Amino acid sequence: MADLRALPLALPLRTDDVREEHLMGNGKTSTRTNTAEGRVNWKKTAAVAMPAVVAVGAMAMVMAQGALAASFAVSGTSFQVSSSKLSSKGLASYVQTDRSVDGKGHPVALLGIGDATLTDICQAAEVDTPVGKVVFKLTAGGPAGEVTASSLVIDGEDLAGDAVFGTAQIGRDASTLDQVSGVTGEAGKFGLQAGNIEVVDVKSHAWSATGGNFHLKGLKLNVSLGGGKCF
Q: What is the pLDDT of residues 181-215, one digit of tens each?
């Protein structure tokens, strides 16, 4: 719960009213309302501040769960993602549309992988530049150790590999998915989810990938003309 004493001074704090009666010359009284200096009506202040506190708290929780993964405009270039092996305690997926800044839509399968462990990872994108096609490539893991990420969400247009799933539910309403915290779609839309998963020789073309607490051991980044991609 937020400490109300830490709220910005710009909040419209209300003070208690003090009513004073003054005897007038005609025998009648007049009433004047003064503001009691230094006195704050904390009940009224809490009522004003509470909606903002709740909204900020809800936004922080949703961001921590990774539910805002698709909240940014994607670039006009998809990229490769690959790994020798990916494992997670759960998977949730549904179809959605990512959009680039020009308004163009890109249909994707949102893959919520939760807490993921990868033996290695490779990401590569081919980018047009004034000097030719440049490959932006990032690698990590392998001999340096495993790569880990929490709330990992990939917006992919395909996924290939040899997979082993735990209990799987295919065709479940996307709004009721509960295998990966924060990953749900619209009511009435197609969705699927599974328990413990392991995918070997992962290959995917994706439009975005987000996650929290990425631990990339042995990180290497390379930009080169005509460089090699992940696959």
A: 889 999 999 999 999 999 999 999 999 998 888 89
In angstroms, the CA 87 to CA 121 distance is: 12
In the three-class reduction of DSSP (H, G, I as helix; E, B as strand; rest coil), residue 83 is classed as strand
In one letter, which amino acid is 97?
Answer: T
Pick the closest to residue 100 from 116, 77, 83 (CA basis).
77
Distance CA(206)–CA(209), nearest Å, equals: 7
pTM over 0.85? The answer is: no
Structure-token match 């779609």, residue found: 185
For residues 173, 112, 183, 49, the Cα torsion angle rounded to the nearest 10 degrees is -170
**Chain-centroid distance, C-alpha 86:** 21
Q: How many CB atoms lie within 10 A of CB 12?
A: 8
Alpha carbon distance 56, 90 (integer Å)? 28
